[in-house]
Amino acid sequence: MQRYAVAAWLRMTRVFHKIEHRLTQHLRRYDLSLAHFDVLAQLQGNEGITQQELADRLLVTKGNICQILDRMMERGLLVRRQEGRTNRVFLTERGRQLAGVLVPEQEALMAEQFAALSPAERHYLLRALHVLDRSLP
């Protein structure tokens, strides 16, 4: 069982890095990182979430989300609006337009990466990863 677990982890890591490399290359054309894309994608359907909610969804620290958002604000892609003691995050028109282009492009790239799997294999993989994700702290 231990050998299987290590082999599965190594294979999963290898596949992850290959896909991440492909997505990163695509985002370089827009001078964006994966973290910036994640913010755009999260905000596209959830504008007005708090900065902390965004950090939680992206699995980053408060300090990291501040740096990411600062850079995106400098580029005119989003704004923060303070409400009481919390900051809410919204896309600007420029950010909405960019997300409207990038999200479908990234979805198409992801579909390409998983095209080698049959629909049943993709479904099984998603279920297996969901179970594994929920079992980890």
Description:
The chain has helices at 2-28, 34-46, 51-58, 62-74, 93-113, 119-135, and strands at residues 78-83, 86-91. The protein is mainly alpha-helical and 137 residues long. The chain has one domain (2-135): Winged helix-like DNA-binding domain superfamily/Winged helix DNA-binding domain (Arc Repressor Mutant, subunit A). It has a two-stranded antiparallel ribbon. Strand 1 and strand 2 (86-91) form a beta hairpin. The mean pLDDT is 94.
Report the structural category. mainly alpha
Please bin the fraction of helical residues. Answer: over 70%
Q: Gyration radius, to the nearest Å?
A: 17 Å
Order of helices and strands: HHHHEEHH
From the 3D structure, determine the CATH topology.
Arc Repressor Mutant, subunit A
- Please state roughly what percent of the residues sit in beta strands, choosing from under 5%, 5-15%, 15-25%, 25-35%, 35-45% or over 45%: 5-15%
Give the overall pLDDT as a whole number.
94
Number of strands: 2
Dominant shape:
globular
Low-confidence stretches: none
CATH class: Mainly Alpha
Trace the largest sheet across and list its strands. Answer: 1-2
End-to-end gap: 21 Å
Total helices: the number is 6
Question: Biggest sheet, open or closed, and with what strands and sense?
Answer: 2 strands, antiparallel
In total, how many domains does the architecture comprise?
A: 1
Q: For this entry, what is the oligomeric state of its chains?
A: single chain
